[in-house]
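Ops channel
N.P.: pipeline sanity check, posting one input/output pair.
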């Protein structure tokens, strides 16, 4: 009640401050938003969010001031934990309807557990596992906690986990700390006999709550407490030794309790103070060696426990006090070296962050500017000096040395290795409970995941990628600074960037230079972004195919409108809540989750990622069935219609095929030449004729034109290419995958494939002169792309999805090699704009390329446009085409070819490719693409996947081009 009253009082004061600031015109958070384009409802929602954010900021300032002035605070530089609180205010600001899921310690399917016998080890109820961390860097101390028992030394090795249910199928728990990727897994072991449940609960409570003060963590099931349920897990601190026979011997739990009791006395007894102060230097050194690195506690203080880094007989303040003539002996001083939390250090200063952003931007300009002057270098040096002043400010130091009198401190008999291992338990136990709760969802959907890590990744929002510290990250960080090891080993930052970084020109160029893996590989990238990218294609395919068959008389435009209404974010978020995915979504509390629209997007992305996980784990048929159950499960008649669509009208007219019509129709007979050319025989050849009917008239032969098949084929190509890119480009984020997909899904590539297959010769038109007119069109004409998409749709309807996949493997995927090796994954116009942006001045508005129409010649049906492109009033090139867009593309392409020396970013593109692949390899690979080499096509169809056509660079690691990456570039 006191905490609630304090929160209400803080909010009341903050609201009053906000009203005062707004009256003075100092709160204008909407000035940077385009409110003119917003509706009235959107503007009110945004104003409400801004008001809440401002009030929250004011409350945070009050909370920090309150904690700094707390009378029981051990030292102003030490931060302590309070229930439900971060260092700067409440942990959760979510609305009641959103307070579900692991982020609020609520797990679906949990119920009260029958209590164990506290005076027994309950061998018939509990399953014992040893918690293993790989690698053991920072979790294997050189000086571990030691307990002497019967003159034998037992060293701390970790924790054991006793669970009420089996965890044999639990996948490894992956997280990263200290720039190192860790995996935590369980090893089943026989249940040890030398403990009782009561003794384990006492030990875990002492470590987790008394020493570490992890006050928000609970081991009881959701909705239960100590009076009604047993704990989900019991933790066993493992102190072990190896016997003469090599067998592992665990120290009994009662011996650990006895050790803690024997080492719970005062650090320095008052009766021994005089003798301690009179010790010689050698005696003093031996005396403090036993305490250095130990944990000591002061019950009632905040925080209660710290790590001892040094013990001094007196401090400067104590020396000054003794000079006043007082002869009262003073206690020695405990030295603790800690760090200020990042949110209160110089990294969080607005001035420093603005200066750092300007520094990165200025450095970025120097890197890509061919002519760098002395003024720019002086500006860069000035910004660097400005940051150094902030970093070295006395009140903003990162590392702080704290001195405290040893009076009142008590020993614990433990070292930081115990607390270091205990601080990973909140995240790991949450991981175990989440995977246990998946069974409730599995029973609801009627399917058991073979790889539960896919579902866990699908429910991981990008905001929680770095939040691997448990329910309350500030509690774990505070305890880590107060009780954790002082010296830690950190890994390479590049490994973390490869898994988390998405933006930046240099990083994008490095990633986009990687050729596809011959075999499927699992991606190391965390979060559900990639799964959401794949799930979007899965959902769109399911919806499009069903609408195509269920509504045979509806035109392409109406089919697209119906599809958009079913795949829109609001509808997918509704399906996610109906399925119960909101009870599994993991996200980090932050400013973004103030708006209902943020939760809607998070739920819709989670649903798409879930559908991708279902597809990868159980196939497309399972994803189709689950989607139908979720959307139509409450309406059996609609579910029946959705699940049993009728055949295509052409198939319905002749169920056994219509090839018997070939002698009667010359147009159909002509298509047999196309079938022989592509090596595919249609059962319903009129489907092939319909896909090639680029006409608006209805006829009895094709039953319409190819627009509906084009709508279907576009979705099929999107799904097949997305599926391939997801599985064979494991180091690409969803943005990079979209770029690669656009290289194959654009009209230029599709038009070229259409010509290569010879479809242009068989296009059916109303007039005899139409085919010759079509052949005279440019290869990039959208007509050819539409014909190819409709052809893909006809292949799917007549055959199945496997034939579409083989078509893409032969005709599309090998072209990726050309796009990557030539760095043509971006169209010329976008690439020229990118080059112009790299030459912009920091203090001025970015200049872009300007296209000017020079002339327009020819008749209305055969016009030719000539366009010139200018940058900074300098003509870079010109181009012509039958449309303005084509002319602009040609002009940009010519400008890039004629001005390569003026754009350093183009040289950087080439440098990355040259360092990753040798010239001979590039030449041979491109020759195979241009010659349609059978061996290259075979590699993409997985006929002989054991002999790769190129040597991959260590699984696609970016370390090979690290020397050409710019770590300080602006993101």
């Amino acid at each position: 009640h006191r905490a609630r009253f304090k929160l209400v009082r803080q909010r009341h004061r903050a609201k009053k401050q906000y009203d005062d600031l707004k009256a003075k015109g100092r709160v204008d958070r909407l000035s940077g938003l385009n409110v003119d384009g917003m509706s009235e409802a959107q503007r009110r929602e945004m104003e409400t969010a801004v008001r809440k954010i401002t009030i929250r900021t004011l409350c945070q300032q009050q909370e920090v001031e309150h904690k700094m002035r707390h009378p029981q605070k051990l030292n102003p530089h030490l931060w302590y934990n309070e229930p439900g609180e971060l260092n700067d205010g409440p942990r959760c600001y979510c609305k009641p309807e959103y307070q579900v899921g692991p982020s609020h310690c609520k797990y679906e399917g949990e119920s009260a557990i029958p209590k164990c016998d506290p005076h027994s080890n309950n061998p018939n109820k509990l399953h014992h596992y040893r918690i293993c961390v790989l690698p053991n860097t920072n979790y294997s101390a050189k000086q571990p906690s030691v307990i002497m028992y019967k003159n034998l030394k037992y060293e701390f090795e970790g924790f054991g986990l006793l669970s009420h249910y089996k965890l044999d199928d639990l996948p490894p728990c992956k997280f990263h700390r200290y720039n190192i990727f860790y995996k935590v897994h369980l090893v089943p072991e026989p249940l040890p006999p030398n403990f009782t449940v009561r003794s384990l609960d006492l030990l875990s409570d002492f470590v987790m709550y008394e020493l570490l003060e992890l006050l928000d963590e609970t081991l009881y099931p959701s909705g239960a407490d100590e009076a009604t349920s047993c704990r989900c897990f019991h933790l066993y601190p493992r102190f072990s030794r190896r016997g003469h026979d090599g067998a592992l011997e665990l120290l009994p739990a009662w011996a650990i309790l006895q050790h803690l009791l024997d080492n719970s006395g005062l650090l320095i007894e008052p009766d021994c103070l005089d003798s301690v102060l009179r010790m010689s230097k050698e005696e003093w050194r031996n005396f403090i060696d036993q305490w250095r690195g130990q944990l000591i506690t002061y019950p009632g203080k905040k925080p209660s426990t710290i790590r001892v880094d040094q013990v001094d007989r007196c401090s400067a303040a104590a020396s000054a006090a003794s000079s006043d003539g007082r002869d009262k002996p003073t206690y020695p001083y405990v030295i603790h070296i800690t760090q200020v939390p990042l949110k209160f250090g110089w990294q969080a200063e607005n001035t420093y962050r603005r200066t750092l952003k300007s520094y990165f931007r200025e450095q970025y300009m120097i890197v890509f500017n061919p002519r760098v002057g002395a003024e720019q270098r002086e500006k860069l040096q000035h910004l660097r000096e400005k940051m150094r002043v902030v970093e070295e400010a006395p009140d903003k130091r990162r590392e702080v040395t704290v001195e405290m009198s040893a009076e009142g401190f008590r020993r614990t008999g433990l070292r930081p290795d115990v607390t270091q291992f205990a601080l990973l338990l909140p995240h790991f136990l949450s991981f175990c409970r989440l995977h246990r709760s998946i069974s409730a969802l599995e029973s609801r959907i009627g399917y058991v995941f073979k790889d539960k890590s896919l579902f866990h990744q699908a429910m991981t929002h990008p905001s929680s990628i770095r939040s691997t510290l448990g329910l309350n990250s500030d509690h774990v960080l505070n305890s880590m600074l107060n009780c954790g090891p002082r010296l830690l080993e950190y890994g390479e930052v590049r490994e973390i960037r490869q898994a988390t970084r998405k933006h930046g020109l240099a990083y994008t160029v490095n990633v986009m230079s990687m050729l596809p893996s011959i075999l499927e590989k699992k991606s190391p990238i965390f979060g559900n972004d990639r799964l959401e990218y794949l799930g979007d294609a899965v959902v769109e395919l399911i919806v499009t195919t069903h609408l195509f068959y269920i509504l045979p008389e509806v035109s392409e435009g109406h089919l697209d409108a119906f599809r958009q209404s079913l795949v829109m974010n609001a509808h997918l978020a509704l399906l996610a809540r109906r399925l119960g995915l909101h009870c599994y979504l993991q996200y980090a509390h932050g400013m973004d989750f103030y708006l209902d629209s943020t939760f809607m997007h998070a739920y819709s992305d989670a649903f798409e990622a879930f559908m991708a996980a279902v597809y990868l784990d159980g196939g497309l048929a399972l994803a189709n069935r689950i989607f139908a159950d979720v959307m139509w499960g409450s309406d059996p008649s609609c579910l029946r219609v959705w699940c049993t669509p009728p055949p295509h009208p052409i198939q319905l007219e002749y169920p056994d095929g219509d090839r018997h019509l070939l002698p009667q129709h010359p147009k159909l007979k002509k298509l047999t030449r196309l079938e022989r050319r592509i090596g595919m025989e249609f059962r319903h050849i009129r489907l092939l004729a319909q896909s090639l009917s680029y006409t608006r008239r209805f006829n009895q032969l094709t039953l319409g034109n190819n627009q509906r098949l084009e709508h279907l084929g576009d979705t099929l190509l999107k799904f097949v290419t997305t599926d391939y890119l997801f599985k064979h480009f494991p180091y690409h984020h969803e943005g990079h995958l979209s770029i690669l997909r656009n290289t194959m899904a654009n009209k230029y590539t599709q038009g070229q494939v259409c010509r290569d297959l010879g479809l242009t010769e068989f296009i059916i038109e109303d007039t005899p002169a139409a085919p010759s007119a079509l052949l005279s069109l440019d290869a990039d004409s959208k007509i050819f792309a539409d014909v190819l998409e409709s052809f893909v749709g006809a292949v799917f309807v007549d055959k199945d999805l496997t034939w579409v996949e083989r078509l893409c493997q032969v005709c599309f995927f090998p072209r990726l090699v050309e796009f990557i090796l030539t760095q043509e994954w971006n169209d010329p116009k976008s690439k020229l704009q990118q080059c112009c942006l790299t030459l912009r001045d920091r203090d001025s508005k970015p200049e872009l390329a300007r296209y000017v129409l020079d002339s327009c010649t020819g008749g209305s049906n055969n016009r030719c446009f000539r366009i010139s492109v200018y940058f900074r009033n300098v003509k870079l090139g010109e181009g012509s085409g039958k449309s303005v867009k084509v002319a602009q593309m040609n002009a940009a392409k010519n400008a890039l070819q004629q001005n390569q020396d003026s754009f350093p970013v183009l040289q950087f593109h080439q440098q990355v490719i040259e360092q990753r692949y040798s010239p001979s390899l590039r030449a041979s690979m491109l020759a195979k693409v241009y010659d349609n080499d059978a061996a290259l096509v075979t590699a993409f169809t997985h006929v002989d996947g054991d002999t790769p056509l190129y040597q991959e660079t260590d699984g696609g690691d970016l370390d090979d081009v690290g020397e050409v990456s710019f770590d300080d570039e602006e993101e």
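N.P.: looks fine end to end. Residues 840-902 form a domain with the Double Stranded RNA Binding Domain fold (CATH 3.30.160.20).
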